[in-house]
Amino acid sequence: MPERMWVILAGGQWCPLHRLQPLLDSATCVVACDGALNLAHERGIEVNVVLGDMDSVRSGLLQRHVERGGKVWEISEQSDNDLAKALTQAAAHDVDKCVVVGATGGDVHHAWANLLECSRAPMEVDCLGANEVHRFIKPSKKYSIEIETKSVFSVFTLSGARGVFLRGAEWELEGANLVASSRGLHNRATAASIEIEFEAGQLFVVHGSFGD
Measured over all CA atoms, what is the biggest interatomic distance in the chain, rounded to whole angstroms? Predict the structure, then answer.
């Protein structure tokens, strides 16, 4: 079965469009979090769903979205932010992976809230920022992450990770147990990709965006 992948557009800083376009082309659904529809319109991006409490999107633009056949999922409760609502909907639709654009780079409070929501999502989540990528990966799966040789990356956990294996790096790990700390800061790739897996817990990799 093909992977079900959603692109979720948020209101922070976006990566360059040429990096985003291949993901948009392969996405099974493109979701704009409320006012991110304004940003999508400015960039000529077609959106399938607008989600949130609709307090930031321009009313005329929302009407045109509906006229083109787009969906509106109005969720007004305020205990979660719009990205949390989008990730909850992705989980309800059995999505395998989400690519989030604009989770970081804006207000620091929103950025932390967005990254925390990504860390607890049940699917894999890649957060594409203007200059960096946060990859939230899942246990019991081997990952090969393409990265420029000698480039710097970091591996962190917010809630702990057990049995972490890391290869293709200057400082490798062999079944390590990690806690929320600075231990994984500023490692360096020794190959064109790093190999990483872990047994249980939560883990994410931060690295620069390349090829711009």
Answer: 55
